[in-house]
Write a structure and sequence with these properties.
The complex is a heterodimer of chains A (about 120) and B (about 110). Chain A has about 120 residues and is mainly beta. Chain A is globular and about 40 Å long. Chain A is built from no helices and 11 strands. The chains are: A mainly beta (about 120), B mainly beta (about 110). At the A-B interface, strand 5, strand 9 and strand 10 of A face strand 3 and strand 4 of B.
Chain lengths: ~120, ~110
Amino acid sequence: GAVVSQHPSWVICKSGTSVKIECRSLDFQATTMFWYRQFPKQSLMLMATSNEGSKATYEQGVEKDKFLINHASLTLSTLTVTSAHPEDSSFYICSARETSGDPYNEQFFGPGTRLTVL
Amino acid sequence: DAKTTQPNSMESNEEEPVHLPCNHSTISGTDYIHWYRQLPSQGPEYVIHGLTSNVNNRMASLAIAEDRKSSTLILHRATLRDAAVYYCILRAGANNLFFGTGTRLTVIP
């Protein structure tokens, strides 16, 4: 199956700093990528949908100025958590849908990035 | 998006079949039934999906009720590696995936 990678796999930062997380589709092109957040013992929550070459679409309640998404190529989307605070500590997961594939088919998920803000 | 209801947790003995139920009484005609699973500290993994007919793949089988208001994910022989949270998700066409609370499967050696 198709592979999605994330970098870094974990990051610890100080409160007030910004953190960038990369999501790459390794062996396929992805016009659309998705960013999720998961708090401990909870389910995944969709944060935003990232479309190559256009602005991301954010879910209700997600601050677009705090969670900056850039999808500059068909294989790379980045999520930047700006001015991170302890409440932003979470497991961030991206997923991608293959451009040439059937849109009704599966999404491929990355391994996740664990962010801890001190 | 239509909602799904799953048991919070289930247990199975290793090497035995597991039937994971999912109720989706408000499913619409265009909703596909998707199953994903998430192993600890990993991203979700696609398992199977279907619309009306039962589906089989190398990982599992999906049995869909005739009225489509429920479905069952079948793992034919549970292994310790199958211990995970299993999510049943209704997806309207090519729309986004919205995850519910899922079923935590424990496999007993």
